[in-house]
Write a structure and sequence with these properties.
single chain, 360 residues, alpha/beta, Nucleotidyltransferase, domain 5, six-stranded mixed β-sheet, five-stranded mixed β-sheet, 16 strands, globular, binds adenosine-5'-triphosphate, binds magnesium ion
Length: 360
Amino acid sequence: MRIPWLKKKAASLAGVDIGSSSVKAVELRKKGKALELVGAGIAELESGAILDGEVRKAPVVSAAVARVLEEGGVCASDVATSVAGNAVIVKRILVPAAEGEALTEAVLAESQRQLSSDVSELNIDYQVLGPGSAPKTLDVMLVAARREMIGHRAEVLSASGRNPVLVDVDAFALQNAFETAYRPAAGKRVALLNLGASLINVNIVRDGSPLFTRDIPVAAHYAAALQKSLNMSPAEAEALKGGKEGAAVTETLVGSVAEAREAFLEGLAGEVSRTLSYFRQLVGSTGSVELDSAFVSGGVARLPGLCERLHREMNAPVEILDPLRGMHCSESSLDAEHLAEISPRLAVAVGLALRSFDER
Ligand SMILES: Nc1ncnc2c1ncn2[C@@H]1O[C@H](COP(=O)(O)OP(=O)(O)OP(=O)(O)O)[C@@H](O)[C@H]1O
Ligand SMILES: [Mg+2]
């Protein structure tokens, strides 16, 4: 998907994913046909800096952006970022076949008809996916996001000293990262799930097109679930969540952690299952809805047992997405082991950095 807002010209740009718990940045360059990682990093954000997708503490967020760019060796002065969640509407619409200005007008007219929000408060963009199901129509992916939200993200990036040139959507950046790293075979239906601190970005893709996208709000954080069920401090719960419980706690606690993890996994599996049912309901009448495979990314992708649990739920093999798959990394400042550990969290940032190579 190639849906940008802002659309300024940029020679090369870095991707900056501003999540509710952390900022991730990636810069790539092309070396012949191969992609090379120039810089990458993560900075954790204090809780409350971003709430419900809104930037609440702009100076804190822009300081984190500046830090991650500097420490991650990201040099590009132009940056791309993304938005997600309930401020974003992604919808497939059917419009009368047209081109250029006439097509834009047709899309805007249809948006006005279909969106309940005030269209003047939205930034609207679209991409033609192909001919529509009815004669002389086009199948169009409409993307709308609250103008204010895009503005806030751009301000944070400017305040960090960089130049915001493009605003994408998490789910589409995720798709670009996946397609570049894995080159899926034609006709394969793949579910992409980016499991973060506040949202699960879902994008079911086939042949380069999103069949279904949805951002599910995360009901409970894993660390919070541990904290509550085990009656411990937030710091203790954070330390436990990586599955490193053996070193720090007693055997009884190990059992309780496993129980809390099971309960958390059940909750997640339930959310994913409800979303898949909805997907099946939506497209079921027009064809098969079986998945060929699924990939998980984001911080929660590292949760022990997640892939196995989701495999049962989705009836398809599930693996952890490595958005850096097949890329070279020549920078000695980037520690390979650390990169391998954080790579699933970089999926959206990689997808954004890939926009550098868009035809302009
Ligand atoms: N090993 C792990 N097991 C389970 N959860 C983990 C693990 N490591 C990190 N997390 C969780 O992953 C989340 C952070 O992931 P990520 O950086 O992808 O989120 P984000 O992009 O900031 O959030 P969002 O995009 O939803 O606003 C946190 O909730 C953190 O507790
Ligand atoms: Mg995220």
